[in-house]
């Protein structure tokens, strides 16, 4: 049962409920996110009903109690694929901008959870972890993700560099060594520059890990593919949501590499970082 079907059932069955339960149904169906942060006592107060009424309401839909109902509601309210991007338009209020930005981001993360294959993350982490040097290649707005990867890899003690700019990328690619690995970011996998870099790197005996679309030219010439589904119209629009999953893959790789290297705190970069920062 999805969140939509649950909320639909609540609305449908509310006509058969007594007055008190109907008030609960009305509140839950119109304010489901608010319910997640409310105790049973608070919900009872909000709906002007007793605790037993709340329990009766939950059991009507097959839940043992209020906490079970809330847990299911929380899990089912996470958006699921297919990805739906709500475009922000000129007439949108600030409230709509906040809502759409957050919902688009949640949708992107949920799609990543469903699409990303753990075995690909593992294969990429192992190859990167064994490299003597990692060249991180990207173009356009993906360069931000490349710099993020460089920063995090360096904090793991890896030798790496984010290589930006066509001429610089070509120079590094043509002088690659067999012990090195190129990490390439491309939303579509069709960017000529990135395909040419991958081809040059492999011609020199180095390996390629690409974070890109499956069944793309870049994917076909990669040693390890980490497939991330591209979003519609990414050649025309570059919303934050379309880039989130590449950042998530970086975090997945970093944590996996930390586990491979035997780090005691694999998911906490500060614990791996010997640098000290001055604070006021």
UniProtKB/TrEMBL annotation:
Stretches of the chain forming a coiled coil according to its record: none
User: SUPFAM superfamilies from the xrefs?
Assistant: Homeodomain-like, SIS domain
Q: Where is the HTH rpiR-type domain?
A: 4-80
> Per UniProt, which keywords does this protein have?
DNA-binding, Transcription, Transcription regulation
Q: Kindly give the Gene3D superfamilies that the UniProt entry links to this protein.
A: Glucose-6-phosphate isomerase like protein, domain 1, Winged helix-like DNA-binding domain superfamily/Winged helix DNA-binding domain
Residue ranges spanning the membrane: these are: none
Domain SIS, residue spans: 123-263
| This protein's name | MurR/RpiR family transcriptional regulator
Q: Which domain of life is it from?
A: Bacteria
Tell me the organism.
Shinella lacus
Q: Name one Pfam family in it.
A: HTH_6
